Records
---
Amino acid sequence: MSKPQSVTAGLVVIGDEILSGRTQDANVAYLAKWLNEEGVILKEVRIVADNPAAIGEAVNTLRDRCDYCFTTGGIGPTHDDITVDAVAAALGVAVMYHDEALQMLRKYYGEEGLTEARKRMARVPEGGDLIKNPMSGAPGVSKGNVYMLAGIPGIMRGMLEGLRGVLAGAAPMQSGTVTVFSPESEMAERLEQIQSAHPEVSIGSYPFFRQGRIGAALLVRSIDAAEIPPVLAEIKEAAQAIGAECMDGEPQE
Amino acid sequence: MSKPQSVTAGLVVIGDEILSGRTQDANVAYLAKWLNEEGVILKEVRIVADNPAAIGEAVNTLRDRCDYCFTTGGIGPTHDDITVDAVAAALGVAVMYHDEALQMLRKYYGEEGLTEARKRMARVPEGGDLIKNPMSGAPGVSKGNVYMLAGIPGIMRGMLEGLRGVLAGAAPMQSGTVTVFSPESEMAERLEQIQSAHPEVSIGSYPFFRQGRIGAALLVRSIDAAEIPPVLAEIKEAAQAIGAECMDGEPQE
């Protein structure tokens, strides 16, 4: 059976506020899940400072290495919103006003309200397109395989709604989980054998200490859903062989 | 007045589970704040897959570029815990058992309970040291300027307690915040002027839409605390000039 090829994305999080610890990122996990629904695997994330050289280096590496490169943050109207300029410089193109974006801003703020600062929000790398935002109207910007999204989670999510079905994705990654209530070190040798016997899946062991119970969630991932249940069954057998309680699915929070 | 030189760190988050969206990272913000308390600036974060080549590339780049390189995740006993091996390969050294770590494990599990899988947790890159964990006993591993921490937040935090005062830090970054209740685009031009007039500080504008109110938190950062209040005062003046309400500090959640 031929497998669909994997389609990958990288993400550049532009955020002094995240590197300073001021803001807890909420976008990586959301984007990762959204990409998975679209059949795209998130391969690498880089969180960089609000610095054109740092942004440019990360964007150029990830747009080259992955099928798609996303950025979050830095597309607002203030002096520290430098994503469009940094990406344009990285791509070697000029920055221009996007006609439709200007019209949207003119409609929203009125002709007099359209200050130079607000016009900044209509700037795109030359030849770039808008990412329509069905939820708030505020668009993102795309140019080639680079997709520039807002950093505010609610607005970023709206922009992703506008991108549904746009990316060329493969089959989404499937997964199944068994939770074993024993220290993961007791299962480790057997798990290694199971992984070696099943190179077609990827087995992850995620230990937890929760409500006084020790255990590990054992996650089996594959693009082909049919490959998962036999491996889960082997893991359950291995758990029973050492007398450990186990259950289907994730441990409860 | 001479400024202390900045001391920097990079972080490599080793985590298929974060790239798949399964787990929400909770370590970046915590480590960022902890580093700041130690006078170290977090310069870049890379989240990479559980893959030796990806880990090695990120570690080699960030340990070269920053004064310190931290990793989180992948130091447990299972087959997918490959951080020590990947870092050793990146550094060009062998992997060995650490005597003291073996003793700790022997004490914890007993001679018979010390299986090959559990012995994995005593492996370090040749010449590496343990990071003592005053909270749980489970140690991290350091080698040169690379510090390998657990991925489970509670254990990572314990290891950081063991590292208090160990890094050579500069003065910690100071910051002050004014919240202005107006769309940030109304303040943008004036803010740019204030930033240009005060290159000694860094001004960040973090817009919010919360409980029906629109505004922006304006954060002024500097290693020298004395430089912050005059800039905050100028921002407040600028807000009052456009008739916008403002308050000291962050907007309330």
---
Amino acid sequence: MLQDRIRLSSLLDKVMSPAEAALLIKDGMTVGMSGFTRAGDAKAVPLALAERARTEPLGITLITGASLGSGIDSVLTEAHVLKRRLPFQSDSVLRAAINRGEVMFIDQHLSETVELLRSNQMGPVDVAVIEAAAITREGGIVPTTSVGNSATFAILAEKVIIEINLGQQIDFEGIHDIYIPTRRPFREPIPVVSPDSRIGLPFIPIDPAKIAAIVVTNQQDSSAATTPPDDETRAIAGHLIEFLGSEVRKGRLTERLSPLQAGIGSIANAVLHGLIESPFHDMTMYSEVLQDSTFDLFDSGKLAFASGSSITLSAACQARVFPEIGRYKNRLILRPQEISNHPEVIRRLGIIAINTALEFDIYGNVNSTHVGGTHMMNGIGGSGDFARNAYLGIFVTKSLAKGGTISRVVPMVPHVDHNEHDVDVVVTEVGLADLRGLAPRERARVIIDNCIHANFRDLAEDYYREALKHGGQTPHKLAEAFTWYTRLEETGSMLPK
Amino acid sequence: MLQDRIRLSSLLDKVMSPAEAALLIKDGMTVGMSGFTRAGDAKAVPLALAERARTEPLGITLITGASLGSGIDSVLTEAHVLKRRLPFQSDSVLRAAINRGEVMFIDQHLSETVELLRSNQMGPVDVAVIEAAAITREGGIVPTTSVGNSATFAILAEKVIIEINLGQQIDFEGIHDIYIPTRRPFREPIPVVSPDSRIGLPFIPIDPAKIAAIVVTNQQDSSAATTPPDDETRAIAGHLIEFLGSEVRKGRLTERLSPLQAGIGSIANAVLHGLIESPFHDMTMYSEVLQDSTFDLFDSGKLAFASGSSITLSAACQARVFPEIGRYKNRLILRPQEISNHPEVIRRLGIIAINTALEFDIYGNVNSTHVGGTHMMNGIGGSGDFARNAYLGIFVTKSLAKGGTISRVVPMVPHVDHNEHDVDVVVTEVGLADLRGLAPRERARVIIDNCIHANFRDLAEDYYREALKHGGQTPHKLAEAFTWYTRLEETGSMLPK
């Protein structure tokens, strides 16, 4: 049985316990671990590390693809193992430690981390810990539900620990397409010309001599917590689908649309679900995370092909899809996140990118990361890779939060992740603002008219009127730009008493 | 003589006066004009338009490559011809009208304008006005000192007006490399793999039947106003060259460095001049504007090849270089700005991008465009195309302005063009901060320690200390984030009395 998963027989004697494998990781090391949006993360070695940290000093720099599942970031944070963490996380315990300044968190565009490692601008990677479905006869590593940064971690690391997860379907083999850009200054074009372009190998090619330990696990990925569509998310989806329909009528898009990317979360998921009932057909996705909606679109016959870097599903969808993953195999590719998110490919394919904003301002600047301008939520993820280079950079959010005390459309965002140059369309349940080709004063008009909640509209009008007196390309009154935030802090609401 | 420049004889009867040609442009039209950083701009037809606007209503949307010379934007603004203007400008009269809200200015990444036009998300382009050195026997347009957006304007426009400028050297023929990406969804990789890759035609290929008018001019480009290096710009250059040297010693770069891009302006020019005395050699440039420093580097034997979209020189350098441009031809390529600034190519080549910041903040966010957060200076230009995708995104500025009353390093920039995710290194004459791999709190430390002027250091420390009490990934005290600006407005200085 294990020989089906570890096919290079010389590696069978590398099988050991997680605790033994974890001994390869020493205090002060930089460790690259698999895992992207809870999918395909290393599940045993990190826990063994946390256990060891109870009795000896053990602090590491942890680099992953994106967020991990199974509360691993919580456990590692509580054990004080994490000194530095990049490029993304979505863990409440880690988040609190980051915001206390205890863990140094480097929030990066998800396509860029391996570029920095490869050029020796960060690193080196001492140890890689990679979950795999199998190791081939040649010593190639077959990933599981995500590729993330695993390929480059394994290639660059001094030593590699493999977690063979018997709980992951062996049928994932063949879904992955591992391509590593050639080294600059001799880099060739990345040959992806369509979401279904296969350009690499179905496994991560490394020297098997680097595989220093193999750990056997048997555990499903953490499932995604899905929130069912509600009136607001359905309204957002409705506005967006109507807009895409009008783009088709204007001859800018065909009914196949353009390859779709959707960020993680309930709004993006609701938008994609909305496409099931839309007039569009034979659609494709070129995204990072494939969620329930991808498989619902497949099953509805609307989706022809999906490329991503990970598959993150609800428990119900996991139970439905994973045992039958072979059935989807000819319509699916999982790529390194460097390729799924590569500016070159995104610009070439002409992607429609739909990402969730934490908030946006009346000029179309988007905050994706910092609550109140200061406290990290999760990180920018791939939203910058996609929005900057997309055919259409779309940001969605509900207009209100916290029972209506907070407006998600504000005079000035206190942290900018995507600026006016990169944001084409913003949508709330109130409506949609098409910002393309508009000057800032024109954008303020359509955003206030179309997107802000009625409860905050007069307040926004007041600010904008005062700002206009000050003049400029982008009128602001700096002394009052953040009064909605200071009021929130003082009174618990952005609304005046 | 004219037959040497207009080689397709059927076009000779299209020669007419600027006033006659300008009649092709009607009120309400969208017009694409050649011109990038004063180079290769249409010089006669825009003035004829302004003249006509004295007697009839004539308002247009004007799209160019980048800034124009000869005060053309001033003349057009004063004649109220400009209703909308994009994607860049650097004219004081136009700037004032923009900031009064009279001209709608759309500030775009310079690589993106033609992408939006081609996909019909903006436009259509009614008339293109293109300066040319010649028209070939096939009707191909040979540009002059810039390519900018001229190729796509000419291809997309209903009608094309050519300004044959006898004052531009015919020897420019052969320098240009005109490549237009194929239409999505069938776009091929852009085959530039090195600054010297020639991938297109030496002229703009259009149907000669579209050439509706030809105007003959005889006028040099406006020369660049150059400021000689001073102590501060020399210090900035020194810090940067020392940094690049340390990157070579660490094995991250070779002594050839990586292809260089430098924004326009005296600081970038001083940095490039500094390279003449550096240990680096056989360097290349993959930039947008080639300035005096490019030719000084050629003449010093340090530079092997330069690719750009325009050549903008001082009067003295024009007089020296242009008559001998043939001598440089095998080391020079001028490309469409879509290609010189293309994210795909910039990421592939691994460019060292050096751009001027208006100001930056203690966390490494850069404002390139908005004075005081509200008033447009010139526009983002290509800095976003380059910084986001560069191997190294470097921003330079003097630490002080206006006789020391203004600090160019502030607690929070009131407009963000390049955020923490895109800025690798910041430099003032005080020193250099290498931000790679640092969390925001760590960045604040090195920026305050290395870059801010001593007169503002305590003030910045005070702000940061207070901000730390508030906590977060990126500590701020929003109520006081802009007090330096409000103090400047009230007292004329960012420094307290």
